[in-house]
Amino acid sequence: MTLATGAPPSRATADDWTPRPAPMTTPWTDQVSVDHPLPDYPRPQLTRPDWANLNGIWEFAVTSRTAAQPAVFGERIRVPFAPESALSGIQRKITANQRLWYKRTFTVPSDWSGRRVQLNFGAADGETSVWVNGQQAGAVHRGGYDAFSYDITPLLNGGTNTVVVSAYDPTESGGQAIGKQRVQDVVPHAGHSIVYTAVSGIWQTVWLEPTAAAHLTRLDMVPDLAAGTLRVTARGAGADGAPVEVTVSSGGTPVGSAVGAVGTEFAVRVPDAHLWTPDDPFLYDVTARLTASPGADRVAGYTGMRSIAVAEVDGVRRPVLNGSFVFQSGTLDQGYWPDGLYTAPTDEALRHDLVAHKDLGFNMVRKHIKVEPQRWFYWADRLGLLVWQDMPSMDSGKTPDSAARAQWETEYRAVIDQHRSSPALIQWVDQNEGWGQYDQARVADMVKAYDPSRLVDNMSGVNCCGARDGGNGDVVDNHNYVGPGNTPAEPARASVLGEYGGLGFRESGHEWFPGGGFSYEDQPTRGALNDRLVGLLDAMRENSLPAGGLSASVYTQITDVENETNGLLSYDRQVVKVDAARVRAANRALIDASRTAGPRVELPVERYVSIRVTTPGYTDRYVRHHDGLGSTEVVTSGSTALLKQDATWKVRPGLANRLCYSFESRNYPGEYLRHREFRVRREAPDGSAVARDDATWCPVRGSGGVRLSAAGFPGQYLRHVNAELWLARDGGPHAWDAPASFTADTTWAIEAPWAP
Asked: pTM for this one?
């Protein structure tokens, strides 16, 4: 449906609008239509054939916060791009003392006669008020990340209509959800490493839609694999209790149909369901129609049949997709663009970053404290990427007051409602690293009760930055830079790594602010970046997954963002910094290993053992301590009693991870075999988390023995070099990392104790 244009004197036109140069251009910057940007249908899970896109050139003005509607709108803006962005044509900082005003005209197509007209907003950041023909359309909408609509039928005049939108966005000056936004210069500048340019006002598609007076507003769909059904709750306006028929089809052929009542859950049979997985993201078509009268409302959508839960797998709590454990390897995705900021320039651009994940072998994406348009979820559903969805946080520097908390929870529930039927979305992430934290346990329980069909992460990064773990939810989530590190296993929750990596490489000619880039560990060359990244993925496959109980990991990050240069792609999406084939192979190996991980290596807890070298030519040597340092020494039946005691260790449950182990000295009870500054020694823990980590070893199978990996440094092993004990990484930068005989030197035989 093409939107009829308004009267030329009052309608903004392309002739009145001038583009602004983007700080960096993406492959899609110059493909954005002036009059009809983002023309794609904005709500793929609830579609109707008739609609009209209002994106394009609007009149625009900025006033003081408290000012009334201006008499003159002296600027032009390309909607739906925020005024801080280059693609808007404004590209200007908006402050907490300013209010945004938008205006345009439209006519309603004649064939919509007799139907209600809905004015829909994908999202507008801040407090948004709407007037049509001078009359306010409903209440002020508060929230920057959820869609909202107004029935404007009573306000229409039958001819040329005028819509005015006002938005007020205080960003960090207010108490609302803001995610990574901070008010700052809109052109590249130094500093501000992990927060980015703010976004104000309209930033998703604005559109009109005709509906019947009684119509459907949402389909809440939950697969029930055990019952072989799709549980459906149809939501509606003016239709509560009305009969609704829902049909599930495959390739145009119905596979199941049922009639229920609007507002009440009912089941549709989906026999022998074709399951949705990242490797096979099969989607069924869904139609729903009100049946009370001929020509009543009818909508179309889709669903994927899959389940997600946490279950015991070989003695470890794991997330299970369709009943099976599959390691979730993903990246942190901030959803920022150098030309459009929060808004991707085109639908193909929106799709691009998800395709990049697939090309690199990832099967999951964590959308980081931002909520994308519904078309992003559509592409995740279609392409097959598991989604962890963060709720955007409030300002990290504040304790939210009661009003801020109420607004945040209201918006969170709206976000859940909007995306609750996406098969790709498997986990809600409530809070991050303590930013704006409060009531973690209560919030997690609230979210789980509101959407019991998904996993809940009460706090991502419970070990970071003053964050407090609510102690509940389905996963326990640590952050570890550079890592990969591990997250201590628990009896009830699955262990995940919500952030790790952050490896940096500055791509000359593709930096937002040249020389201003930040990362957690800069790499000198692309080759070094590839080696280090693959090493992290391999360490999880070899150690964190089988030995430490790790079930998922999120690499920071898919693209550079402003002054962060730790992306796998440059911020302008022009360069893939890594060897895609090599990273994909490492990811696939990690994911495939989870399917055949099997039981972990178990050692005899609370029993004494001796640890013997397996390197040929040195097999009569054992791990011992001497003057507090770890070493190996030949031990025989004729050795002194002291040597035999020094070479005997009690196997204890891991001080930092219950799935791993700590080795307590026999003749120095309370002192353990630990690494510190790479040297391995006998030492009493000082009570710190670091000391507990350093004294915890996770065993993995080796040829002729076990390899003991550091709990906090997967991929680094207990190694003997010239009779000394070191924490070593194959091919690392130190002398004790030398590759010669590395595997043999890091493989040990666990044997009967010399001193029982």
From this structure: 0.94
